[in-house]
């Protein structure tokens, strides 16, 4: 099945009570886009993504670009929570490539390219330095990306509240539905991963919600 692409521009229509329908999804997206002060949101519903979601864009494009897994349309609460989370990423500038995480990712790629060049030039000293830089930059980029997830969770609650919904309840339910990571990832894998564990996200969100 091909992805369904819909361009959604904020209007004065309140959020629909049934966002699993095309009209309801458009109204929900419009309400969240207004709350995020996004001029427009391009939503792609992709069956291949299942229940995942992505926010992507560039600093040259002010519109939010969101890809939603088609499976999310079957769960009203998760759809609201996930869509708000991805729009929050855009509102916070995470998808425009201008964050600390993006900067460290660029350093990592420079380190990798330098490492390859040093290997070709048979310079073991430069190869060792470049490898250390690449690994260090990757770890720092991953740490910043995990922080971005915490920030998007917290900001999505604000966007949902501004859209007239119960942000705390929706985000709590969305995080509760996240599948558990493998034991290896929970023990140490998260250090090199771009996403914190679901338990870590739930703890961070609870702490943020209690502080407000």
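^ Assign residues to that structure.
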């Amino acid at each position: 099945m091909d992805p369904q692409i819909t361009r959604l521009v904020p209007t004065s229509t309140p959020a629909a009570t049934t966002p699993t329908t095309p009209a309801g999804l458009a109204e929900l997206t419009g309400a969240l886009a207004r709350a995020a002060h996004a001029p427009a949101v391009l939503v792609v519903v992709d069956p291949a993504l299942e229940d995942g979601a992505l926010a992507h864009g560039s600093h040259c494009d002010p519109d939010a670009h969101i890809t939603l897994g088609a499976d999310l349309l079957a769960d009203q609460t998760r759809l609201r929570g996930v869509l708000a989370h991805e729009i929050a990423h855009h509102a916070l500038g995470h998808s425009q490539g201008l964050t600390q995480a993006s900067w460290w990712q660029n350093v990592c790629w420079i380190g990798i390219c330098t490492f390859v060049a040093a290997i070709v030039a048979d310079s073991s000293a430069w190869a060792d330095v470049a490898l250390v830089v690449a690994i260090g930059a990757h770890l720092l980029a991953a740490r910043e990306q995990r922080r971005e997830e915490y920030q998007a969770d917290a900001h999505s609650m604000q966007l949902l509240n501004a859209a007239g919904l119960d942000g705390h309840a929706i985000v709590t339910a969305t995080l509760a539905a996240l599948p558990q990571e493998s034991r290896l990832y929970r023990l140490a894998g998260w250090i090199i991963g771009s996403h914190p564990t679901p338990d870590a996200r739930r703890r961070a969100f609870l702490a943020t919600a209690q502080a407000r």
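The longest helix spans residues 124-162.
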